[in-house]
Design brief:
Elements (H helix, E strand, L loop, with lengths): L2 E13 L8 H13 L11 E2 L10 E13 L3 E5 L6 H8 L7 E6 L3 E4 L12 H11 L4 H15 L14 H14 L4 E4 L8 H17 L3 E5 L3 H7 L2 E6 L2 E7 H10 L7 E3 L5 E3 L2 E10 L7 E3 L4 E9 L7 E7 L5 E5 L13 E9 L7 E10 L9 E12 L21 E6 L2
Helix pairs in contact: 3-4, 4-5, 5-6
């Protein structure tokens, strides 16, 4: 099998707040030292790690540092990491949107990129015209594009608006058409960033299925960036975990995802931070975990265990009408149910201080398998990210026999808002 993508000691440095290096004399000096005198660029020695949480002292930062890996033809590789880890920068380098500061990138074959909403589209041109323009950029003839046109339009679901300028498209429509163009115009390498999250659930499933067809049936290479770990595990065979611009780990996708979800914790289903993980508008998340009732945190629990979910947070200012919400998702990323503590269980007007919530989940409520939890804390209806929002913050697995999933706690099928016993204690 041949190599499709190769990164050799690739680094990318940026100067904060500026384009280029501020002054012409600065640029000329840098060119003279590196290109005429043949010496090492002095500015490569002074950059700091790209840690967005710290202020730093240097105006130079490394978005990527010494990235070295190969991707074989037909591989589907998931690139994961926190915001600011360098995922999108890596894809931009591969797509030649920007160039590396040091190192070499080799890509064998045409690259189709979907890096952000509207990538490669001209707003004044219609959807149909943009399809032909993108195909021409990929080196395809008009007849080749015409042969794929009906499939592209049908897959995108934008037939009614295909002769309307794309500047009038919603973000979801733009992503639908952009993905269809990138997937059906047959690039040897398909590069997809987090933009699929803009699409609805139905389209996300279609897109994941199409990427599987591209890699498995047609032998093309896919690089996929997403914060949805269920989608990453479903699609990808191997993964690359980035942290502060450097490769922390690479290999089979399952352990990569597990290590990412664990963060600094020993197990995936317990997160405890020395410094508050999420600080916004007076809300600080300190700890979250799920375990057998009265037990310890373990990688795998059993279907027959009664579970308790523990959440500890701090308010640095009083909050009125504030509560938490949890979305439980399956391995495919589908939300199976959500719940919020009832108003009569948890007081929503809270004083400044530290709080502990314990939610009890009955045994045999969930079937065997892996689950992911999204966490929300908010004050006002429909402003769910007012205080905190984290997708796939926690994961856990249940082992044991298959159980009947008929009426959850006596509720009718389809009611996905169960009410669990919840106790909230003010610690200080």
């Amino acid at each position: 099998m041949s190599t499709a993508i190769e990164f050799e000691h690739v680094s990318k440095q940026y100067r904060l707040g500026l384009v280029s290096t501020k002054t012409l004399s600065h640029d000329i000096r840098r060119f003279w030292i590196t290109n005429v005198l043949g010496k090492e660029d002095p500015y490569l020695k002074i950059g700091e790690t790209n840690d967005r949480a710290s202020k730093g002292t240097s105006e130079y930062v490394w978005a990527l540092r010494d990235i070295d890996f190969k991707v074989e033809q037909g591989d589907v590789v998931g690139i994961i990491g926190k915001n600011g880890a360098g995922k999108s920068t890596l894809l931009k380098l591969l797509s030649r949107v920007t160039g590396p500061t040091t190192g070499t990138i080799r890509a064998h074959g045409r690259i189709g990129s979907l890096l952000e909403v509207g990538t490669g589209f001209h707003g004044e041109m219609t959807g149909r015209e943009n399809i032909f323009m993108n195909g021409a950029i990929l080196g395809m003839t008009r007849n080749e594009i015409q042969a794929k046109l009906d499939e592209i339009i049908d897959f995108s679901g934008c037939e009614r608006y295909i002769d309307t300028p794309v500047k009038r498209y919603s973000s979801g429509m733009t992503v639908r058409l952009g993905f269809a163009v990138a997937a059906f115009l047959e690039p040897e390498i398909l590069v997809v960033d987090e933009v699929l999250a803009v699409g609805d659930a139905e389209f996300q499933k279609k897109a994941i299925g199409k990427m599987k067809d591209i890699s498995q049936g047609q032998g093309r290479t896919v690089l996929f960036v997403s914060h949805n770990m269920a989608s990453v595990k479903s699609l990808c065979k191997t993964g690359i975990l980035l942290e502060q611009g450097m490769i922390k780990e690479m290999g089979p996708i399952d352990p990569i995802v597990s290590h990412y979800l664990r963060g600094g914790s020993e197990v995936a289903n317990h997160k405890l931070w020395d410094e508050p993980f999420h600080k916004k508008n007076g809300f600080e998340l300190l700890e979250i975990g799920i375990r057998p009732l009265g037990g310890t945190y373990e990688d795998v629990m059993r279907v027959t265990d009664e579970l308790e979910m523990v959440v500890r947070y701090r308010l640095t200012v009083p909050k009125e009408d504030m509560w938490t919400t949890f979305h439980f998702k399956n391995e495919q990323g589908d939300k199976i149910f959500s719940f919020s503590p009832d108003a009569n269980q948890v007081k929503r007007s809270k004083a400044q201080g530290e709080y502990l919530q314990v939610h009890r989940i009955p045994k045999e409520f969930l079937n065997w398998g892996s689950y992911f939890i999204d966490f929300y804390a908010f004050q006002k209806e429909r402003e769910i990210d007012d205080l905190a929002y984290e997708s796939d913050l926690l994961s856990f697995a249940l082992a044991g026999r298959t159980i009947e999933m008929g009426n959850w706690m006596g509720r009718e099928p389809g009611d996905i808002t169960p009410h669990f016993d919840c106790l909230e204690t003010k610690l200080n």
